[in-house]
Amino acid sequence: MILEPTNGEHLYESTMARFDRAAELLDIDRGLYKIIRYPMREVTVYLPVAMDNGSIEVFTGYRVQHSIARGPAKGGIRFAPDVNLDEVRALAAWMTMKCAVVNIPFGGAKGGVKCDPQHLSEKEVEKITRRYTAEILEILGPEKDVPAPDMNTNEKHMAWIMDTYSMHARQTVTAVVTGKPASLGGSRGRREATGRGVMIMCQQAAKWMNFDLAKTRVVVQGFGNVGSVSATLLHRLGCKIVGVSDIQGGIYNENGLDIPAVLQHIQSKRFLKGFPGAQEVDNKALLELPCDILIPAALEDQITATNASKIHARVIVEGANGPTSVEAEKILDEKGAVVIPDILANAGGVTVSYFEWVQDRMGYFWREDVVNERLEDVLVPSFHEVIDYSTRFKVNLRTAAYMLGIQRVVDTIKTRGIYA
Ligand code: NAD
């Protein structure tokens, strides 16, 4: 049976089709795999909100828990005008795989509210967040489902969710969400975690492929949380960051950009445009610049059949979710480029979210160097496990990562057995 798409785009089915191909290569029970093909639970809620102008609007929200086989469901909440159930379903399944690949004890979930935050006041956004939390309260909880920020949500939203949940529980429950402000039980190192994970992937790729990371030229698309931290950390390791970009376009200097100066420029001017000592390039040209490592860290579908053959990088580290299309991946494979897939490359974020949940439950908070060291302890073995699957089954790293994730989830379901 195929789940009904809710917007005609079949994102969930196309995601599952990719998992199916990976599963076929594994010697696993087809019946057990069938369980992964379906989300465990989907909730749709309608949220009445009194708007600033006195009118009442009703917003639609979703929470999909794809799997809790390996632990509480885990995944972000996004606020966007085009959020739909099909998309949330696909992203929830992705989270199950991501958590399994890095072997942290979580399942997968995702949530979203269909709204346009650009046209809402802060008060209205707060009301939507709190009502959404109240409507899905029964399925949330540190042992059940732990949300985090995603598109257009941040630590402020997590604070509101934590507070709403806690008011109903009649006690402060910090571990119900991750990505919180430090003052409310957030973890040190969480802000930098995804970019730090990207850097760790570059280090491991350099060792595995036998090149000197300090001698590489790097291009980073997107200079937000993930992109700017990746660029900063790789710059500190001696890499030449030759190009970076944001939504308005990119900057390029073949001799390497002064990344601390770029960060200062962004602080005062908000955008990269106008940075002195660099040539301006558009986002399309940026991806095709001569470089050794390319880090797409902006949004999905950036490397496509149209530009894949023009990409110079030997290594592509997917900081963003889904930046490479299926067709582009075939072209990159044929060229011999190595793609470190999103579910491994950007898993630093969810790994430190796991650490945040652990610290909240212990009520004891780690130093930043301890967080960073433990992040490495999780990501380095995961990288090598994916490489092992890739070598053993002669598949690219994305298929290998899917295979590793599926194997882990199926093994857990098999050991637990099927209830009733
Ligand atoms: P962000 O909003 O902080 O930064 C996004 C950056 O991309 C900004 O510099 C923005 O200007 C730029 N951008 C937007 N549209 C662009 C375009 N059309 N072309 C070029 N640049 C564009 O977001 P983020 O948290 O850094 O997330 C980036 C990606 O990484 C997303 O795909 C996100 O899902 C993924 N990701 C983030 C985390 C995390 O912890 N933040 C974890 C896992 C995955």
Low-pLDDT sequence parts: none
Written as H for each helix and E for each strand, in order along the chain, the element string is: HHEEEHEHEHHEHEEHEHEEHEHHHH
User: Over the alpha carbons, how many angstroms does the gyration radius reach?
Assistant: 21 Å
Global outline: globular
Ligands (ions, cofactors included): nicotinamide-adenine-dinucleotide
Q: Helix proportion of residues, in percent?
A: 40-55%
Mean pLDDT across all amino acids: 96
Count of extended strands: 12
Main pleated-sheet profile: 7 strands, mixed
Count up the helices: 14
Structural class: alpha/beta
Structure report:
This protein is an alpha/beta fold. The chain has 14 helices and 12 strands. The chain has a 7-stranded mixed sheet with strand order 9-8-7-6-10-11-12, with helices on both faces. Strands 1-2-4-3-5 form a 5-stranded mixed sheet. β1 (41-50) and β2 (56-67) form a beta hairpin. The chain is globular. The two termini are 22 Å apart. The mean pLDDT is 96. Residues 194, 221-227, 245-247, 283, 297-299, 319-321, 346, 349 line the site of nicotinamide-adenine-dinucleotide.
